[in-house]
């Protein structure tokens, strides 16, 4: 099972890419955060817009920052400063919410894109 063409277009329009499909009906999508994190999520294909919305709603900025702070303590190199981690996690949260909105309300996002192009 794969995403609908319109869903893939919405992903691409929002800077996301399909990384892979799993054997159990999920899709992994990814996008680089402003700080350069290769951020990815894996959600069900069948209810893709709703699955992305649920993921976005449950994304925890603090938990994401803590994960990277622990990684840095364990010797992972290249982890940004805590201040940058917080800012980046907030941007990831925003990226997820924007994608969820574009998938759930495609008519609104295409209208917004058209209005932006007219400016």
Description:
This protein is an alpha+beta fold and 119 residues long. The protein has one domain. The protein has helices at residues 5-13, 48-58, 61-73, 82-104, 106-118; strands at 17-21, 26-32, 38-44. The chain has a three-stranded antiparallel beta sheet with strand order 1-2-3, covered by helices on one side. Helix 2 packs antiparallel against helix 4, helix 3 crosses helix 4 (82-104) and helix 4 (82-104) crosses helix 5. It starts with a helix and ends with a helix.
User: How much β-strand is present in the residues?
Assistant: 15-25%
Q: Shape, please?
A: globular
Provide the spatial order of strands within the biggest beta sheet. Answer: 1-2-3
Mean pLDDT: 92
Distance between the termini: 39 Å
What is the N-to-C succession of helices and strands? HEEEHHHH
Low-confidence segments: none
Alpha-beta classification: alpha+beta
Biggest β-sheet strands, sense, barrel = 3 strands, antiparallel
Radius of gyration: 16 Å
Helix content: 55-70%
Annotation field: number of helices: 5
List the defining traits of the structure above.
3-stranded antiparallel beta sheet; 58% helix; single chain; 119 residues; 5 helices; alpha+beta; globular
Would you summarize the structure shown here?
The chain is an alpha+beta fold and 119 residues long. The protein has five helices and three strands, in the order αβββαααα. β1 and β2 (26-32) form a beta hairpin.
């Amino acid at each position: 099972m794969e995403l609908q063409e319109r869903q893939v277009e919405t992903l691409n329009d929002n800077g996301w890419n399909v990384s892979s499909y799993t054997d159990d009906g999920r899709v992994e999508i990814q996008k680089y955060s402003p700080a350069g994190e290769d951020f990815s999520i894996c959600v069900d294909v069948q209810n893709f817009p709703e699955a992305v919305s649920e993921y976005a709603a449950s994304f925890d900025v603090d938990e994401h920052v803590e994960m990277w702070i622990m990684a840095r303590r364990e010797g992972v190199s290249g982890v940004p400063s805590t201040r940058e981690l917080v800012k980046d996690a907030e941007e990831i949260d925003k990226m997820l919410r924007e994608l969820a909105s574009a998938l759930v309300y495609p008519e609104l996002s295409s209208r917004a894109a058209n209005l932006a192009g007219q400016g």
